[in-house]
Amino acid sequence: MLAHRGRRLAQLTCLATCGVIAWWACAPIVGTMPSPAPLPGDPDAWAYTGTLSYGPTLVEPYCHQQGASCANRLELTPSVGAVDLAMSKRIAERFTMGAHLGGGIGAGLYLGASSRYFVVDQDTLRVGIEGQFGFLWTAIGVPVAVRLNDNLWLHTAPSVGQRLAHHTRLPVGLSIDLSDGLRLAFEVAGGYGPNVLADYVDGGTRADWGVWVSTGLTFH
User: Fold this and answer.
1) Is 159:141 a contact under the CB 8 Å cutoff?
2) Which residue has the higher pLDDT, 159 or 11?
3) Do 76 and 55 form a contact (C-beta atoms < 8 A)?
4) Largest Cα–Cα distance in the chain?
5) pLDDT cut 70: percent of the chain above it
6) Contact predicate 59/198, CB 8 Å
7) What is the rounded CA–CA span in Å between residue 186 and residue 175?
8) Which end of the chain has fewer CB atoms at under 10 Å, N or C?
9) What is the mean pLDDT of the segment spanning 199-219?
């Protein structure tokens, strides 16, 4: 009885914590979605992904004060990094749903959800439509994965949407299947779009361009 109440209390605490985070969090500054390549093993099992992202951001100085002179050049801001934890599950033959929780230096905290429907789902090619959702955060993308050999996939997922930074993003990565139910992925990504946080905090920079690298591990 006590064990049951303890589990129930832990579940309610987890939901309350996620709710608080979702209320004041926005979209990630940097980060990546799980690879669109199919994970070997049980296709109906929950898949869990942990991703680390890191990279500098290019900023273009500009002025708020009327009459002040501005330097027309690009500079590097302090580096930003993020951790993304995701869980996803296939709920239909070509349709998956997922949830995301993450944060980091320069990325704040965020909670969101995603869905993918694969229009093309073959042994060597997957092409889909993706939706991402969160508080002050929504985006659509096109995940694509191409099999290079039995254990190696090339993947990308260009997306555009309303986010904290870099409304348009283009990642390119490799997914390496280590065994059934275990995958290692590497990704390089670029983004373009105003950095809302930099505008609000600094009052003097606009992060139009961003680049970052990511590595992630997926298992079930």
Assistant:
1) yes
2) 159
3) no
4) 71
5) 65
6) yes
7) 7
8) N
9) 70
The C-alpha atoms of residue 208 and residue 206 are separated, in whole angstroms, by 6
- pLDDT at residue 17 is higher than 50: no
- 51, 31 contact by CB (below 8 A): yes
Report CA torsion sign: 178, 143, 155, 136.
negative
Cα–Cα distance, 109 to 101 (Å, whole number): 8
- Give the count of beta carbons closer than 10 Å to the beta carbon of residue 201: 10
What the chain holds in terms of domains, given with CATH numbers, is 26-219 (2.40.128.90)
Q: Which residues, 6 or more positions from 195, have their beta carbon under 8 angstroms from its beta carbon?
A: 29, 57, 59, 164, 165, 166, 205, 206, 207, 208, 210
Q: Do 34 and 49 contact (CB within 8 A), yes or no?
A: yes
* Cβ contact 103:81 at 8 Å: no
Q: Residue 213: CA atoms inside 13 Å, Cβ hemisphere, count?
A: 3
Instruction: Please choose, from the candidates 154, 129, 115, the residue with its C-alpha nearest in 3D space to the C-alpha of residue 35.
Output: 154
Burial class (CB in 10 A: 0-12, 13-18, 19+), 60: middle
For residues 162 and 153, is the Cβ–Cβ distance under 8 A? no
pLDDT for 188 equals: 92
DSSP for 74-122 reads: -EEPPPEEEEEEEEEEEEETTEEEEEEEEEETTTEEEEEEEEEEEEEE-
DSSP state letter for 67: T
